[in-house]
Amino acid sequence: MRWDELPGSDNVEDRRGEDGGSRGFGLPIGGGGLGIGTIVVLGLIGWALGIDPRVLIGGAEVYQHATHPPHSPYRGPSQRGTPNDRTGQFVAKVLGSTEVVWRDIFAKDDREYRPPKLVMFSGATRSACGYAQAAMGPFYCPNDQKVYLDTSFFRDLQHRFHGCDNNKACEFAEAYVIAHEVGHHVQNLLGILPKVQQRQHSLGGVESNRLQVRVELQADCFAGVWAHHAQDRYQLLEPGDVEEALKTAAAIGDDRLQMQGRGYVVPDAFTHGSSQQRVHWLSAGLKSGSVDSCNTFASAAL
Predict the structure, then answer these.
(1) Which of these, 194, 206, 229, lies nearest to 103 by C-alpha position?
(2) What would the mean pLDDT of 44-51 be, rounded to a whole number?
(3) What average pLDDT does range 1-29 have in this prediction?
(4) Would the pLDDT of 52 be above 50?
């Protein structure tokens, strides 16, 4: 992936190396969907305690969509602007390119795109959606309109989830992960997330999860839309990049993660979609570059 020429973003908060202040926090859940690691962790807890993992995952889903934030946001010091290290610069440039792409897309409909902040942290930190920790994976919090990213997840993509083959090949896959979380911010600005969360309050666990899957798959599609326009503008893709991103999408499908975590698949507990679904919707956005192609809520392809 050729990212050196991408525009940088100043909307980065670098909290790496700071005390996350873990005391007094409850279940680590993010506002844009259960983190990838959380699904595995809940499955293992259920297995160890003899509790149906669907109960734990369903309860977590209900908890994460509470109307009021359960914890106060982080108010400690942080470095703002583009970090100096290579990982920080990469994150800032990917975020910067999403700002340009989505600003242009929104402008076509006479809308204003207000970019999210991206918080880089190590181990744990606070968010307006609760306690954030590395095991959750990246997530978007609509309460403070911030993306939270422990960049150790990039190593997990390669070594734990086997979503890409080497550091260079992983770069576009990592960019896809960031663009997916920004996709949740786009959903929030378009009013999609508030409507979904309101609807989920009246649904049972299984139906709520199914609706959450559509949210996550649309974010995958929006990530593809970003990549389509970023390629047109910046020519960032190199041979094999798309294949690696699709490999990552497959690696973090709910069915594959559940097999890794508990040895069997429970479709009713899906919150992000199967490997096949994630690949399908990322591909749809990549090919079309159109937001209209990402209506997962009207699609029968699930």
Answers:
(1) 229
(2) 40
(3) 72
(4) no
Structural tokens at position 261 = 């975590």
The answer to whether position 7 is within a domain reads no
Q: 2 lies in a domain?
A: no
Does residue 277 sit in helix, strand or coil? helix
DSSP string, 6-40: SPP-S-EEE-TTS----TT--S---TTS--HHHHH
The model's pTM: 0.78
Residue 6 lies in a domain: no
pLDDT the model gives residue 163: 58
The residues that bridge with 124 in the sheet, in sequence order, are 133
SS3 120: strand
What is the domain range of residue 72? 12-294
pLDDT computed for residue 63 by the predictor: 36
Number of domains in the chain: 1
Which residues touch 130 (CB under 8 Å, ≥6 apart)?
Answer: 25, 26, 27, 28, 29, 30, 64, 69, 70, 71
Classify residue 5: in a domain, yes or no: no
